[in-house]
Design brief:
CATH architecture of the largest domain: 2-Layer Sandwich
Strand content: 15-25%
Order of helices and strands: HHHEHEEHEEE
Number of helices: 5
CATH class of the largest domain: Alpha Beta
CATH topology of the largest domain: Alpha-Beta Plaits
Structural class: alpha+beta
Largest sheet: 4 strands, antiparallel
Number of domains: 2
Strand order of the largest sheet: 2-3-1-4
Radius of gyration: 21 Å
Shape: elongated
């Protein structure tokens, strides 16, 4: 898929994220001389054509008041991990949940579950509620609270005449 100049401009405009307004694609359209539908259609085509690999949301929890962030790692029996992961993933307090292989003997955990909260005590209680909901009160686990924030940003692209190359 080859991009025209307007599409290249569109990619550069979205590189630092969408504006926080009720109709972000209409706002972007004003910068690139496109209407809202054309922006959405163009971005959809770029995703479908593989020019844009992902189009997603980065939530900056800290700015929203969520200062206690913990990855809980669980050692779940292999025959239950899929069901438990699905259940945890549907909980309101869980922002992501995924399975990873154990790295024995040092790392026995196979289920990772991120919980965000305003206070550490609230996060710990939510984790206990998750455990109780699945009968995992005695399951081996560790709660790893974030100690440092890293800058979050999406992919950045460098528009060249021939193509767009990922630079981040």
């Amino acid at each position: 898929m080859e991009l025209n100049e307007q599409e290249k401009l569109l990619v550069s405009v979205i590189a630092d994220g969408l504006p926080l307004v009720p109709r972000p694609f209409a706002e972007i359209g004003r910068f690139v001389s496109m209407d809202e539908d054309a922006v959405i259609r163009s971005l959809s085509n770029m995703v479908a054509g593989g020019i844009i690999k992902r189009f997603g949301l980065i939530v900056r929890h800290h700015e929203l008041g969520y200062r206690a962030n913990a990855m809980t790692v669980w050692d779940i029996p292999d025959d239950r991990v899929a069901d438990i992961g699905r259940s945890f993933g549907q909980a309101d307090c869980v922002t992501l949940c995924y399975r990873r292989p154990r790295r024995l003997p040092d790392w026995p955990y196979n289920l990772f579950c991120m919980v965000h909260g305003r206070e550490r005590e609230a996060v710990l209680e939510q984790i206990e509620q998750l455990a109780r909901s699945m009968g995992l009160e005695d399951a081996p686990r560790d709660v790893l609270f974030s100690g440092r924030r890293f800058k979050q940003r999406g992919a950045h692209y460098d528009a060249t005449p021939e193509t767009l190359e990922r630079t981040a």
